[in-house]
Every structure is written in C-alpha cells, then in structure tokens.
TrEMBL record:
<comment type="similarity">
    <text>Belongs to the ribosome association toxin RatA family.</text>
</comment>
<dbReference type="InterPro" id="IPR023393">
    <property type="entry name" value="START-like_dom_sf"/>
</dbReference>
<feature type="domain" description="Coenzyme Q-binding protein COQ10 START">
    <location>
        <begin position="11"/>
        <end position="119"/>
    </location>
</feature>
<dbReference type="InterPro" id="IPR001509">
    <property type="entry name" value="Epimerase_deHydtase"/>
</dbReference>
<feature type="domain" description="DUF1731">
    <location>
        <begin position="405"/>
        <end position="452"/>
    </location>
</feature>
<feature type="domain" description="NAD-dependent epimerase/dehydratase">
    <location>
        <begin position="160"/>
        <end position="365"/>
    </location>
</feature>
<comment type="similarity">
    <text>Belongs to the NAD(P)-dependent epimerase/dehydratase family. SDR39U1 subfamily.</text>
</comment>
<dbReference type="InterPro" id="IPR005031">
    <property type="entry name" value="COQ10_START"/>
</dbReference>
<dbReference type="Pfam" id="PF03364">
    <property type="entry name" value="Polyketide_cyc"/>
</dbReference>
<dbReference type="InterPro" id="IPR036291">
    <property type="entry name" value="NAD(P)-bd_dom_sf"/>
</dbReference>
<dbReference type="InterPro" id="IPR010099">
    <property type="entry name" value="SDR39U1"/>
</dbReference>
<dbReference type="Pfam" id="PF01370">
    <property type="entry name" value="Epimerase"/>
</dbReference>
<protein>
    <submittedName>
        <fullName>TIGR01777 family protein</fullName>
    </submittedName>
</protein>
<dbReference type="InterPro" id="IPR013549">
    <property type="entry name" value="DUF1731"/>
</dbReference>
<dbReference type="Pfam" id="PF08338">
    <property type="entry name" value="DUF1731"/>
</dbReference>
Amino acid sequence: MPTLRFPSVLDVSAQALYDWHARPGAFERLTPPWAPVQLAAFEGIENGERAVIRLGYEPLALTWIAEHHSHIARRQFCDRQVQGPFKQWNHTHRFEPISDTRSRLVDDITYDLPLAPLSTALAPYLAEPELRRQFAYRHRITRHDLDLHARYDTARPTVAVSGSSGLVGRALVAFLRTGGYPVRRLVRRSATRPDEITWNPSTGQVDAEALASVDAVVHLAGENVFAPRWTATKKARIFDSRVRGTRLLADALASLNDPPDTFISASAVGAYGDRGDTPVTEANAPRTTDFLGEVCAAWEGATAPAESAGIRTVNLRIGVVLAANGGALQVLSPLVQAGLGGTPGRGTAFVPWIALDDLLGSIVHTLHDDTLAGPVNATAPAPVRMRTLVDTLGTIFSRPTPWRIPEALIRAVSGEAADAMALKSIRARPARLTAHGFTWTFGELPAALRHALGRTLRPHQPQRM
C-alpha cells in the first residue's frame, strides 16, 4: 500500500499549529483553488465525527465521506475514507513540538487505488503527482496564514463580512476563522445562525442592532463585473449593487450609539481611470471618465455617513485578484494551458494585480492598523504589462503565447467591457500599505501564479515511504 509523508517545520508552537487546523475554515483554506471540491457537511475532528465532501462538478460529482479517528488533543487527528474514490485512504495529521516556538507539521497518507493491488504500480503516476501538488499547496497556506496571524498577536476583533459567498469573501471568512477571529456573515435572508446577520440592499433591510455587536465590518458585496459584454441591465446591477449596499451599511453604522470601530469597504483601482504608463498611488485624484470610474466614485462616496460618524473608514482599492477559481486567471489560464493564449491588444497596458492570499493579508493588516483610513491600494508592489502576465502563464504551462488579439476585435466582441477588463492601463502602486509596513508573501508575479495554480512543489519534496 503506497505511503507518502509531507513534513514541514514552522515557526509556531505545536499548540498554535493544532488550533489552526481544529478551527472552522481549515478545510476551506487547505483546499487548493484549482480542485473541484466542496465541503457539504463537517462535524469536527473528534473521534467518529465525519466530513462529507463533493468531488467534481455537479451533477456528476462524487461523494467522499471521511471519518475521524485516533484523535490526540494538541498532537494529531486522522481521517479514513468511509466512501469515496479510493479503495482505501487514511490521512494522519501530526503536530510535533520542536521548541516553545517551533513545530513540525507531518501529513502521512496511506492509500490504495481502485483495483489494488493490480493498480499499485501505477500509483506514482496516477495519484501521486496531484497529491504532491495539493500537499505542497496546503503547507504553503498553513505557513502563510500562521506567519501572518502571528504578526498581529493581539485581541481578535469580531468581524462582520458581506459578500461572503464571493471569491474574496469565502476565502476571507475561512482565513479569519482559522486565525481565531469571530466572524459574522451578512446574509440576504433571515438569519438562522448566531454567526449570521440579516441584510438586503434590494429592500433596504439591515439588522443594525446585530451590527452593533461587532468590532469591524468588511464590505465586499457587489455584482461581478466579469461578463462577455456589459448590457444596460448588467451595468445597472454593477452600479446599484455597490452603491446601494454600501450606503445601506454606512447609514446603519452611523445610526448606532456605539458603532463598530472600523468599516473597510471594497473599491477598485478602476477609480484611477486609464493612466497609460504613469504610476498612480493613493495621492492621485480619481477619474470619472469611464463607467468603472463613475462606479468607484459613487461607491466610495456612499461610505461618507460612516466616516462622518467618526468610524474609521477605509476604501480598499483592489487590483486584479489572482486566483485559479475566479476572476481573470480563471479565464486566462485554461486558454493558455490549451495553447490558445493570446495577449489583448498591444499588450502594453499595465495590470495592477494582487495574489488572493496577499489581499487577505492586506485586509487583516488594515483591520489592525488604526492609522489607516481613506483610500488604500490593495495591489502587489510591481504591476506588470499584460503581455508579461500572458507570457508568464505561457512559461508556467510550457505553452507558446506569440499571438496578439487585435483591439478592434476585442471591442467588437465585448464593447465597453473590453476597455475596462483587457485594455485599460492602471499602473497602481500600494504606497500606503508599503508605508504602513505590510509585507507581501507573493509579491513577484511568477511566484504568485505558480502558487495559485499549484505549479510548484515548494516548500518541500514529499517522502515516499
């Protein structure tokens, strides 16, 4: 029966390492973004408790049921397959103390493929390459999250999050919860759990009293701007979902006698408009010369009631988020991998990108730095030209990317959306995050892409037992 071991040494105590894995959100944080995996139910990690996982895409997804066993508090837990794609599967998670401030994370996997022992000789070729990718990713995420949370070794504020079903919101909720932050999700229905708060921008409904119980609000909700073409209806949804929802929350917070200390409201670097090769920072005035510029101006303006009420208000101008399971990368990477990748237009437009995990870090940094207010650019330190982004993807996938897609063709197909998402140049720099001491984990484009796409086995090579 094949056995793989994945060890890593981390600069945290074994207790902190165990606690991180035991908290809600750990499964979501450890699931690679390229893997079609959904957690359907989770009871916990105590002996006999189960996790129900859906693998693949509906309606053809498979169900994997894992049962936990051999739990030793602060030292290990194990899960074995009860139902799933393997003939046998057992995974031991161990947390070994090295010193008071260092520990070793060890993941031991023992498995058999279907038709074993006939299939055992094929295991190194069929199963192990993907297992190596996934566990290298898991260990990078574990290290990233624990290192980042250790920077802010203070009391954990209670955080309300809107847009928690979106790309960034889902990741943020899991990231905060594994870090020990109490999180309350804003939901557009009647709240049924203690960790939910009801709000509905369409009807103007919000549970202001529940908002009074939190220390900070992170507002991420808004219609996805990605679409083949913007219709008038789509543009109205993009505008209204941002402005109306933001104003509803800002008014509700301002009405409270004892409001949360902090209101972090998403915005976008689209606020700056097309600037060509000119670098822009938060010191540059926004422009309203295009649709997204108008949206951002109204979006940020809608936070004014909270700011006027004395609540520290941050307009987080987010760049192009790099994640395998959403946004631009979800569109670009399959095309490049298939050998169909091409650079939009001349490829000279600057892309103000940021790795998803660094965006989560910038949000937590902003939560804890009470001297940050107003506009804050959430981008990597070095924006790149579009052709560099596409060519780097080509290098990672070992595919050629010599083609250029004419601007006229892009505009004919996508209209106004083409300029906003593919042709506009915004050379935004995160001057305020830099000045306030934020450190990027994935500040270089190749490393960020390889991490997001699982195209690196860092931090280690697995040991085959």
